[in-house]
Amino acid sequence: MKRPFVHLSLVLASSLLWPSLAKSHEGHSLSHGVMVEVLANSTKMWNGNLLPSYPHGQPKVKILRIQIPKGTTLPWHYHPVINAAVILQVILELKSKDGSQKIYQKSDALIEVVNTIHASKACGTKDVDLTMFYAGEEAMPTTELTDPKTNP
């Protein structure tokens, strides 16, 4: 059991000793067997608008795995913090009150809208399964319902 730790320690030490080996994720050496796939990299949200600035307080990152039953439409809501998701299973439809909409399928990544009222619908024959990443401030909520009784 100590052997993997020793190998990992040598790799980490060599990365510190040889800066050419300690590259950013965009420059990982294939000789290390590292594979990187960019899922999302943008300054814009799914509706095409620019992302807002980050808050100035204590940063807080929250990661959730969310499952939405097939056919379910979530009520109108908004996110006061920057967030993104990766769809793990089936199809998710997003639409905003202004009429813009997008459909995401398995393995798609999306950068959610911030402070924009929108709704989500689980499409397809199975429940939607996704991982959501929120980057906000410690005291800020990640989601606010605008009218929980009103579905789009």
Textual characterization of the structure:
This protein is mainly beta. It folds into 2 domains: 2-32, no CATH class; 59-145, Sandwich (Jelly Rolls), CATH 2.60.120.10. The protein contains 1 helix and 9 strands. It has a 4-stranded antiparallel beta sheet, with no helix packed on it. A hairpin with a 4-residue loop joins strand 4 and strand 5. The radius of gyration is 19 Å and the shape is globular. Mean pLDDT is 84; it is low at 1-23.
Strand line-up of the largest beta sheet: 1-8-3-6
* Outline type: globular
The CATH architecture of the largest domain can be named as Sandwich
Number of strands: 9
Which fold name is given in CATH as the topology of the largest domain?
Answer: Jelly Rolls
CATH superfamily of the largest domain: Jelly Rolls
Counting structural domains, the number is: 2
Described by strand count, sense and barrel closure, the largest sheet is:
4 strands, antiparallel
Reading off the top of the CATH hierarchy, the class of the largest domain is best stated as Mainly Beta
What low-confidence regions span 5 or more consecutive residues with pLDDT below 50? Answer: 1-23
Overall mean pLDDT stands at: 84
Our measurement of the CA-to-CA distance between the termini, rounded to an integer number of angstroms, reads 55 Å
Percent helix, as a range, is 10-25%
* Content of β-strand: 25-35%
Order of helices and strands: HEEEEEEEEE
Tally of contiguous helical segments: 1
Radius of gyration: 19 Å
Assign the structural class, choosing from mainly alpha, mainly beta, alpha/beta, alpha+beta, or little secondary structure: mainly beta
